[in-house]
Amino acid sequence: MPRHEFRPGRAVAGLVMLALAAGYAGDAAGFWDAPPEFFIGLFTGGLWTALLVTWIGYRIRRRRAARKASREKDAAPPSSSGSQATR
Predict the structure, then answer these.
(1) Cα 38 vs. chain centroid, distance in angstroms?
(2) Which of 40, 49, 67, 76 falls between 20 and 30 A from 25, CA-CA?
(3) Domain-by-domain residue ranges, the chain?
């Protein structure tokens, strides 16, 4: 059993930040001459993607919880063993 729930939006944001760090390191080391627009686009596009993934995950979790609650509500009540029980 996992110790915490998986949050894919945070994973996407982390990967975007790692890509930005690698791009800046490559640019600083002289391996690559990247235009600033590339980093701005990667940053904004990556964060929007992380937001979208987070929103989709939230909607999926809410839908699953609603289905589970609906199934529990529709389930038959437990039988009693008191005087009203039929034999």
Answers:
(1) 26
(2) 49
(3) 8-70
- Biggest CA–CA distance in the chain, Å, is 86
Report in angstroms the alpha-carbon separations of 57 from 14, 28, 54, 71.
Answer: 17, 36, 5, 21
Give the tokens for residue 70: 């609906």
The tens digit of pLDDT for each residue in 38-74 reads 899 999 999 999 999 999 988 888 888 888 887 777 7
Per-residue 3-state assignment (H helix, E strand, C coil) for the chain: CCCCCCCHHHHHHHHHHHHHHHHHHHHHHCCCCCCHHHHHHHHHHHHHHHHHHHHHHHHHHHHHHHHHHHHHHHCCCCCCCCCCCCC
Amino acid (one-letter) located at 21: A
Predicted TM-score of the model (pTM): 0.67
C-beta separation of 27 from 33 below 8 A: yes
- Written as six digits, the tokens of 61 are 């979790």
